[in-house]
Give the backbone structure.
Amino acid sequence: MAEKKPERTSAAKEAAKAAPEDSETILDTIMDVRSPREIRWDNATTWPMIVLSLVFLVAYSVMILDDQPFRGTIDLFILAIITVTYIAFIVDFFVRMHLSEHRVRFVRNNLIDLFSLLVPLLRPLLLLEYLGRIRLFSGGSGSSLRARITIYAGGSAVLFIYVIALAVLACERHAPGATIVSFGDSLWWAMCTVSTVGYGDMVPVTIPGRIFAVMLMLGGVAIVGAATATIVSAMNERVVVARQRAVHYQRAVSNKQAKKNPPSA
């Protein structure tokens, strides 16, 4: 019987090591409400959609920064790229909705995706959603969640400011009495707005420009909140780990002293 104890101890250790992986797998299964067909489609189209989103972002940027678009062959080619990629995004959305077993829930969980189809200027922001399909950022563990939030917060801050700056420039550049007439002006205004500084030296004068300004204000609040929550979560985890190490160290010291100084009979 004494020889079997090490085998049981090693088996228990292996089960303890496997438990977190099993719990993480179960958590991932509970959180993932997609159908098997939808999962296969997402796995097959994640990287193509990331590439198309990057292509769309570059073409969209060139089209907006070009002060006189649609006057040459290159401009028409860029417009064709934007049109083809936009059609691909529409097809991807409706195919995923068709493959989903709960279409109402699918639409409810992909409102940003649907809204970006209605407002193509916001389509580059869906790069973050496609990154979320990658397994590294789609797990349910604490590390995966923090990695996802960190990338979403940082990526959202950069992409959101950049895309809104381009959109406001497109709306304001040729408006009467406009103060935002270049990309530098638009980027400066976007940075002041999202950081809640608001100098007021540059303001949108068109209705679409002011709508984008409101979106930037609300998005800035969300970005700051997500970044703050991520920092607090990381700090709390470090504090917990430090406390656990201190407790284990104290127990080890106590056990060592107890072995050196056994209680007298």
Notes: The chain is about 80% helix and 0% strand. The radius of gyration is 26 Å. The chain has two domains: 28-140, 141-228. The first helix runs from residue 5 to 31.
